[in-house]
Amino acid sequence: ERAEWAKLVDAPSVSKDGKEFEIAANIGTPDDVADAVKQGADGVGLFRSEFLYMDSDHMPSEDEQFEAYKQALVGMKGKPLVVRTMDIGGDKPLDYLPLPKEMNPFLGYRAIRLCLNQPEIFKPQLKALIRASEFGPLSIMFPMIGTLAELRAAKALFNECKAELQKDYPGLGDDIKLGMMIEVPLAAINADNMAKEVDFFSIGTNDLIQYNFAADRGNDKVSYLYQPLNPAFLSLVKHVIDAAHRHGTKAAMCGEMAGDKYALPLLMGMGLDEYSMSATSILRTRSTMKNLDTTECAKLVEEAINNCATDVEVKDLVEAKL
Ligand code: PEP
Ligand code: MG
């Protein structure tokens, strides 16, 4: 099986009926780029930029960040890279950034919430990214966006950084695509309005499930509520993808669900454009994708959402088709 998969390293990610998709890698440091390329990734769909902050004993400077993003883009050799802006605070504290203790860190002062309130921390990251964009196709996405006002505020800071840099370097960063993660339930519900204002969505199912089921993603006692195949959750995912496409916005997914073999036919049936996963899952996914027909997958989605009552029923339905 592995030998068969290895032949797919340079093959396109395409369904049985010839529909093209993208299968991308999730990475944590610039050093992971080489492996992602080796595993045949069409791009990097999620570069978790937190490592820059977590692995440092001081707030990384704009120049230090620039070097890291440049290294990642050069290593991509022309393939697209999506960097998620810092997702720290809450349960991911930093020694050098004192923050008040919180009762509910997952619901607290973190990610884009911190970045919008402390632009002196956020702007160096945005400027480092804009400067690095000279070295390859770069997309930037914002984590934990819940409201349109947050999205607009993040975009305004990005545009402010770009304008400041463009005083000396006209046109710098004009090719950067801007996106947002869909991981807060309200953003998923409001996907039509969100889609009008971004180039792409990336569905973060780890958090989107945590918040929809109100179940801590790290707590074993409630792990039975991690249900990517729950029919109600599937209809929410479908709503997000449909909303994206109504507005010409690309729909990607970078949570664990994107690499789940039972979810794959359903996501293909919904028309999800990009699947971002751990690099080791890429070739297996490309191989399965090749044997799936998107028209049949779309019927499977209808059946799962309309006729199944539980995630177990959906899993059985998909298993019978695979
Ligand atoms: C997610 O929430 O699904 C996601 C991809 O981000 P993280 O796992 O880093 O929170
Ligand atoms: Mg998340």
UniProtKB/TrEMBL annotation:
Enzyme Commission code: 2.7.3.9
* Gene Ontology MF annotations: phosphoenolpyruvate-protein phosphotransferase activity
The cofactors required by this protein are: Mg(2+)
Q: Which domain of life is it from?
A: Bacteria
Note whether Thylakoid occurs among the keywords.
no
Indicate the transmembrane segments per the record.
none
Function of this protein? General (non sugar-specific) component of the phosphoenolpyruvate-dependent sugar phosphotransferase system (sugar PTS). This major carbohydrate active-transport system catalyzes the phosphorylation of incoming sugar substrates concomitantly with their translocation across the cell membrane. Enzyme I transfers the phosphoryl group from phosphoenolpyruvate (PEP) to the phosphoryl carrier protein (HPr).
Q: Which family does it belong to?
A: Belongs to the PEP-utilizing enzyme family.
This chain's protein is named Phosphoenolpyruvate-protein phosphotransferase
Q: Whose protein is this, by species?
A: Limosilactobacillus alvi
